[in-house]
Design brief:
Helices cover about 50% and strands about 5% of the residues. It has helices at about 5-20, 25-30, 55-65; strands at about 40, 55. The chain is globular. It starts with a helix and ends in a 6-residue tail after the last helix.
């Protein structure tokens, strides 16, 4: 993996952490324009859920479901 790709991933994770802390799950994905296809599919580990999630709306649903049990993210 190139250093440029590593830096993109680092930026996404840093921005995602800030967005998560404020409950802005969709924004956490859209910080790097063009990084993800808008119709991407998220397939979580089967230990978490058997549901699959599609696109930014699916990502937000997954994160809301996954984090609802936390007092603080």
């Amino acid at each position: 993996m190139s250093e440029e790709n590593v830096e993109v991933v680092r930026r996404v994770f840093e921005n995602a952490q800030t967005a998560y802390e404020h409950g802005h799950f969709q924004e956490s994905l859209s910080v790097e324009a063009g990084l993800l296809d808008p119709d991407f599919e998220l397939v979580p580990a089967p230990e978490l859920t058997t549901e699959h999630y599609r696109g930014y709306d699916g990502w937000e649903r997954f994160m809301q479901n996954w984090t609802e049990g936390f007092d603080q993210w």
